[in-house]
Amino acid sequence: MNPGAKEGGLVRRSSLGTFDSFNMVIAGVKGDLAEGIELIYDPLMAASLDEAASIYGLIAEAANYPSDFSWVSFRLRAGAKWHDGRPILPEDVLFSLNAFREYSPKLSAYYRHVVHAEKTGDREVRFQFDTSGIRELPQVMGQLIVLPKHWWEGTDNSGKRRDISETTLEPPLGSGAYRIKQFEPDRFVLYERVADYWASELPVNVGTNNFQELRFDYFRNPDAAFAAFKAGALDWRTENAAKNWATGYGFPAVKRGRVVKEEFPIRSVGMMQAFAMNLRRAKFRDRRVRRAFNFAFNFEGLNQELFYGEYSRIESYFDGTELACSGLPQGRELELLQPLRSQIPPEVFTTPYWNPTTPDDNAERANLLKAFDLLSQAGFEVKDLVLIDPDTREQMTVEFLIGDENLERVILFYQPALERLGMKVSVRLIDDIQYTNRLREWDFDIIVANWPESLTPGNEQRDNWGSRAASQHGSRNLIGIRDSAIDTLIERIIFADNRQELIAATRALDRVLLWNHFVVPQWTLFDQRTARWDRFGHPEHMPKYGQAAFPALWWWEGEQWSTSNENGRELSELFTGSA
């Protein structure tokens, strides 16, 4: 952080799709949440960008918990207040917990261990847990976003009572460094820094939140957003397309040094990004079928043809971290797996996980033969070049459901290999709202999904892979995993009493997930590719786990911005819904 960072300026960034709600409580259940809404709220405690598993006081000035972690209490700061000047109270904290537990399936699972929450003083609140020994629970509760009870239980300008279970485009009351200044649904949302932000002088905030305004402009597709950036109508871009990174930055502003390309190492998260199969569909329930899809995936050819060789193959659900499994299980990891031997794939104990590789045409043919062999073992057969499903006695059909048009070319590259196996393959590209609704109802065969993993996994693993979450709409268990061995290992992670136990349990879970072949792992890059107009400064030494840490630690150093680009073309021409 730079305590002397300049303050002021406007940052313009892009978001894809649409938004119709400012209510973060029901995110993932109803509506499309506006980008950046988290900026208006503060949590009880703030995460550190330099430490993997530390949080520091924000709304709460102190935390207290016993050695068995069976409860935690927080003392709120006397000066903590909402943007309307009213103090943040224990009643707000209790209201927030109840709202998230009632209306957010994901957070309901995250906070499931809280059996009792109460106000224990004028500025104190206590959470009692249903079990002891879970070291992360005090920290989990410290991450709680606090919402204003009096605002949500009040009425809007028309006299209508607000409903936290529904979408709303009324700008909510917050307590954070920013508030909503202006917005237009489907086009933009603009946040402004709060002049009298109550926590601006706290150590966790010094040198942060330096920009006067933060704006998110919505675009119909990624190409339109990139065009707006090149035109100077956007300031900052995280580049996710290898093709753009390799070939798209030859425009004059880059050559003149006005646009800066920079890569920042990613150390804070592991990642599984993959083709994810829906186990609720009978055709995917045999793991040999799922493994066949991996043998049909020519990653090496895809990487060279579409990605300019930039990516490496994902080998773990915790790829890029010390939590990823490797080799064969040993020591404590093996001890955790031994009691589950009869419930998990035998390869867990005999073979390090591996993805099929396709270095040449001969390997591609061999992999397709192996894929067909696995399908045959699962009861599939070929008649007149058509792969027959043993259950339906009809051709095996597969639909890839996507909401991002950039993924279409990836699947079209993959499609011929699956068709050579006798499948009927289709790609369905739908808009953002339809895509969200179909995922909520698990109405898909295969999607492209990702699961970011922190360096301290815990309760969220239940939401990702737990049996209970498989039937909870809005959970991250999109695959539909119901596996008692996986449930057991998740509990081992949650109840780990030290770092080494956590690592062993996580690696054990990783192995079991991998060898069940729930997904076809895709690709990763251990750097964040960014491009920016040369208008900003950042600390010389960036935080270890902050990646680019934009815009949190950056500041404005540039000229005045304009909504017209260098050629005079208006930004509005590129917005979602524009002509």
How do the helices and strands line up, and which of them pair or pack?
Layout: E1 10-16, E2 45-47, E3 55-57, E4 60-64, E5 71-76, H1 90-103, H2 105-110, E6 114-121, E7 124-129, H3 137-142, H4 149-152, E8 178-184, E9 188-193, E10 213-219, H5 222-230, E11 236-238, H6 242-247, H7 252-255, E12 259-265, E13 270-277, H8 287-295, H9 299-307, E14 312-313, H10 331-337, H11 347-350, H12 361-377, E15 381-383, E16 386-388, E17 397-402, H13 408-420, E18 424-429, H14 432-440, E19 446-453, H15 460-465, H16 484-494, H17 499-515, E20 519-521, E21 523-524, E22 527-533, E23 536-537, E24 555-556
Parallel strand pairs: 1-10, 17-18, 17-19
Antiparallel strand pairs: 2-3, 4-5, 5-7, 6-7, 8-9, 9-10, 11-22, 12-22, 13-19, 13-20, 14-21, 15-16, 23-24
Helix pairs in contact: 8-12, 10-17, 16-17
